[in-house]
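Example (one chain per record):
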Amino acid sequence: MSNESKNTVLALIGGAVAGAAIGVAVGMLLAPEKGEQTREKVRQKMQDFEEDIMDKVDDILDKVVSKAENLVDKSEEIAADINVDETETTK
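Predicted structure:
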């Protein structure tokens, strides 16, 4: 994964966290409910948000692992081709 891709992912996650925090703060200020009910709603929303972020991080990690495995496979194929070419030229 390139540095640019990593920075993009980190920016996305950072933006999502900042957006969630702002949303929670505004929601608490505008909520017509009792404090206890508001806190419970905020707690539940944050848990849901955490689960969503973790799912997205897992998806990204799966993609990175898949690409890394593909790179390993390709490098092994190239190495095998180089070895074949070297043995043919030494005959």
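Caption: The chain has one domain: 3-89.
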